[in-house]
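If I may wish for something, please walk me through the protein I am sending here so I can picture the backbone:
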Amino acid sequence: MNKLTGMGMAFCLGLTMLVSCERSQRVQAGSEGITGVDFQPRTAPEPGVALNRDPADGPIKGQVMSVDVAGQGMLIRVENGMEQTVKWNNGTTTVQGVPSDSKSATTTPTTAASMKALAARPGSEVVIAWIDDNGQKMATVIKVTDLSSPTKQPKKKIRRIKST
């Protein structure tokens, strides 16, 4: 009898826990029934803003969000708030406005070196002249108009194990 009572109490406790975890409000579309929330969706682009640009429309102006040096691509936030991916090529793309890291002022940095320096400075303002390369934006000239301050990367701590 004692075993039966213990198992019955464990069953009731488990059932009570399952019922108490049940959600009282189901998933709803929109914000029906939610009070105190001032969510406003992002406004639609202005009627004059073209979502699918043509290289003949002119250069892209925006802010660098991230740079993928290995993949030769960068993500920029353009004037209308959208994010665009732009590719570059070491042989055909020129980068202007990024200081070189070398001591000699006569050597111009390569595209890869300039993009590596730009990767450490997200938030920089750029103007990109580009061509359409099979549906991808391929940069021909990347002109950095406002170079942001470099991000501080945390130094890696080296743990040394003391031998006894």
Notes: Helices lie at 2-20, 111-119. The mean pLDDT is 76.
